[in-house]
Write a structure and sequence with these properties.
Shape: globular
Helix content: under 10%
Protein name: Aldose 1-epimerase
Largest sheet: 9 strands, antiparallel
Distance between the termini: 60 Å
Pfam family, one: Aldose_epim
Strand content: 35-45%
Signal peptide: 1-21
Number of strands: 29
Pathway: Carbohydrate metabolism; hexose metabolism; Carbohydrate metabolism; galactose metabolism
Catalytic activity: alpha-D-galactose = beta-D-galactose; alpha-D-glucose = beta-D-glucose
Strand order of the largest sheet: 11-12-13-14-29-23-22-17-20
Length: 381
């Protein structure tokens, strides 16, 4: 046991040093911190990053969760464009659909919650019918992360013990958040492991560029471009069948600017909740590439998403309550309803550990998992 703790400590030191080294190239910005309650018997802190463009981002240590993104529109009016809650109690409630959270150890779904690595079968917790979703019953979005400020970045770290939710290997994770003066919110997620284990992290931010409380009325006006030429076909439980299908001549083709309100009700399942595959580029390797662009014409707010991941889950909040209900009580007394936001969850393909034709998702000792994603915000007329 002492040897395991020593290995875990060395992994933590190695990962923290790596994250800090990466952050030194970033321009230093104003970062403040305040107490924000407690969870799991541990204190929770909120970090606020600010830049010279009047933009602000709030992140809490519970779930390494982004709780707010405040941006001016083309008239200078500032709105929070991220769905979330006013205090920690909201994030601890059963009403929380992973608002803004860092999701792991494996984001999205694993069929039957089982997989085989090197001939060994593993059973992880199942929390959505017979399947596993977003890391299981108490995945990383339900844990309090450690945090530090280093050279203009907020670095959050987490130790996931061997056997956590049934997963093999002790894993050290970090999520580094930076906000540049040109409006780029960057997240770098890294992990090391002591045993072979599947890893697939994502951030589950719910965006509405018109403002977090404007719901479907404004989301339907958003124009989206998704740089994806294929998608992973799923069954009735949203589990991939293994087929990767072209988006050409289908409702899944969003490669040209598309108004969400024109297509959302034509999508099977009542909206988008599918993994889209970015174009393969063998020369590009693990480098960043364009994922999506989103624009809200009346406010002028624009968001560009870039990542090094092979896929992205476009989710249009189909599972939020219907408009004829009381909805979810969110920030500032606003109620959130179905189609009130969109998520662009950069990721590996869902259930990749069970599909040999999907990109590899198994991390082995000595290897580094590195996931980069940036959301660049600005004004576009």
């Amino acid at each position: 046991m002492a040897k395991i703790r020593h290995i875990n400590f060395l992994l933590l030191m190695q990962l923290t040093a790596f994250a800090m080294a990466e952050s030194k190239s970033k321009t230093i910005k104003l970062i403040t911190v305040q107490s924000w309650g407690s969870a799991n018997g541990k204190p929770v802190d909120k970090y606020t990053l600010k830049n010279n463009a009047g933009q602000e981002v709030d992140i809490i240590t519970y779930g390494a969760t982004i709780t707010g993104i405040r941006l001016p529109d083309k008239h200078g009016n500032v709105e929070d464009i991220l769905l979330g809650f006013d205090d920690i109690s909201g994030y601890l409630s059963s009403d929380n659909p992973y608002f803004g959270a860092t999701v792991g150890r494996v984001a999205n779904r694993i069929a039957k919650g089982s997989f085989v690595i090197d001939g060994q079968k593993y059973q992880v917790s199942r929390n959505i019918g017979e399947n596993s979703l977003h890391g299981g019953i108490k995945g990383w979005s339900f844990k309090v992360w450690n945090a530090t400020i280093e050279n203009g970045a907020v670095i959050m770290t987490l130790l996931s013990e061997d056997g956590d939710e049934g997963y093999p290997g002790a894993v050290i994770a970090s999520a580094t958040f930076t906000l540049s003066n040109d409006g780029e919110l960057s997240i770098e997620m890294k992990t090391f492991t002591t045993k072979p284990t599947p890893i697939n992290l994502t951030n589950h931010a719910y965006f509405n560029l018109a403002g977090h409380g404007t719901n479907a009325e404004e989301l339907y006006k958003h124009r989206i471009v998704l740089n994806a030429d294929r998608w992973t076909v799923t069954d009735a439980d949203s589990i991939p069948t293994g087929e990767i299908r072209s988006v050409k001549n289908s409702i899944m083709d969003l490669r040209n600017p598309t108004v969400l309100g024109d297509v959302i009700d034509k999508v099977p399942g009542g909206g988008y909740d599918y993994n889209f595959c970015l174009p393969e580029n063998k020369d590009n390797g693990n480098k960043n590439r364009l994922v999506a662009e989103v624009h809200h014409p009346s406010s002028g707010r624009h968001m560009t998403v870039v990542s090094n991941q092979p896929g992205v889950q476009l989710y249009t909040a189909n599972s939020l309550p219907a408009s004829n209900t009381t909805g979810i009580l969110g920030k500032n007394g606003k109620h959130y309803f179905r189609h009130g936001a969109l998520c662009l969850e950069t990721q590996n393909y869902p259930d990749a550990v069970n599909h040999p034709n999907f990109p590899n998702s198994v991390l082995r000792p000595g290897q580094l998992y590195l996931h980069t994603v940036s959301y660049k915000f600005g004004i576009k007329n």
